[in-house]
Amino acid sequence: MRELERDSISDAPACTRLAVVGRGRLGCAIAAALADAGYDLAGPLGRGADVRGANAILLCVPDTEIGRAATALPPGALVGHCSGASGLDVLAPHEAFSLHPLMTVTARGARFGGAGAAVAGSTPRAQALSIELARALGMRAVPVAERDRAAYHAAASLFLVTLEGAAERLADGAGVTRELLVPLVRATVENWAALGAQGALTGPVARGDEATVAVQRAAIAQRAPDLLPMFDAMVDATRALAPGADAGGRRSCRFQADPRAGEPAATAGAVA
User: Fold this and answer.
1) How many domains is the chain partitioned into structurally?
2) Which residue, 157, 175, 205, sits at the end of a domain?
3) Are 109 and 63 found together in one domain?
4) Three-state DSSP class for 260?
5) Centroid of chain to Cα 3
6) Are 100 and 179 found together in one domain?
7) pLDDT tens digits for 133-147?
8) Which range marks the domain in which residue 200 is found?
9) Domain check: are 136 and 214 in the same one?
10) What own/partner pairs with CB < 8 Å and gap ≥ 24 does 108-114 have?
């Protein structure tokens, strides 16, 4: 994906009155941000609200509800959605656009400035509107083709919070609070941003320290056995990423029963 150049579209506004439909986290955050940016805006509105007078309508509804919400809209206005995985076909027969902020939105809202935004349009006018809205929010507009949207959205899903939730459980059992993990997480993300995944990789798996990996796994087996499949998958993925992986780019840690401890033990240097 390549960010669109600042002068690649006309500066003429594609929208003079915008309606935002959807009162969830994203709808509320986008409506507030676009209103602050100076748009003549109605919303966030509930589904089924009167949107007459708007020449563009942005649907901030669950993916499964986009088609139904679009069908209920009157013809004439440009209609967009904020789904990362959905294409524009769900908005037919409207002139369609999409705007997916590459940013997490919680109950506390979101800061869109500086984030990326996947954009698309069924016509040049619709594409221009998606870019216009992204820039009004302070985001960097990047076109994502229909065929690439599912893969793009899978990448955007990340699962970082799920991983940190698992880390938080284990740390809490050792008397370490979430707050103490935060600097580590922030530094890790900053290193990844600066160096890339392989350059930012640290820890026992990257060092080839099989004994420590085995001790970690035994502790998880004892305290949170439901996390073992996640741990094993992440160990394998990290081995594949680490410098010195085999020619196929994959390594695997094989575990054998340790009759003395009653827990699995790592076979050092095992390669799948």
Assistant:
1) 2
2) 157
3) yes
4) coil
5) 17
6) no
7) 999 999 999 999 999
8) 160-266
9) no
10) 109/25, 109/28, 109/29, 109/32, 110/25, 110/26, 110/29, 110/33, 112/29, 112/30, 112/33, 112/137, 112/138, 112/139, 113/137, 113/138, 113/139, 114/138, 114/139, 114/140
Give 216-239 as a 3 state SS string.
Answer: HHHHHHHHCHHHHHHHHHHHHHHH
- Residue 84 structure tokens: 């990362």
Same domain as 112, residue 180: no
Residue 214: inside a domain: yes
The answer to whether residue 9 sits within a structural domain is no
Cα-based distances in Å from 10 to 6, 14, 87, 97: 10, 9, 24, 16
CA angle 20, 23, 147 (to 5 degrees): 65
Q: Which residue has the tokens 């959205």?
A: 153
- Count of Cβ atoms closer than 10 Å to residue 38 Cβ: 8
Q: Is residue 78 part of a domain?
A: yes
Q: Residue 156 half-sphere exposure, CB side, CA atoms within 13 Å?
A: 20
Which parts of the chain fold into alpha helices (H)? 25-36, 66-71, 124-136, 149-157, 160-173, 178-200, 204-207, 210-223, 228-241
The predicted-structure confidence for 9-61, as pLDDT tens digits, reads as follows: 444 455 779 999 999 999 999 999 999 999 999 999 998 899 999 999 999 99
Residue 247 to residues 186, 203, 243, 251, 271, Cα–Cα distance (Å) = 32, 22, 11, 10, 11
Contact by Cβ (8 Å): 45, 20:
yes
29 three-state secondary structure: helix
Read off the pTM. 0.79
Residue 87's domain is classified under what CATH number?
3.40.50.720
1 in any annotated domain:
no
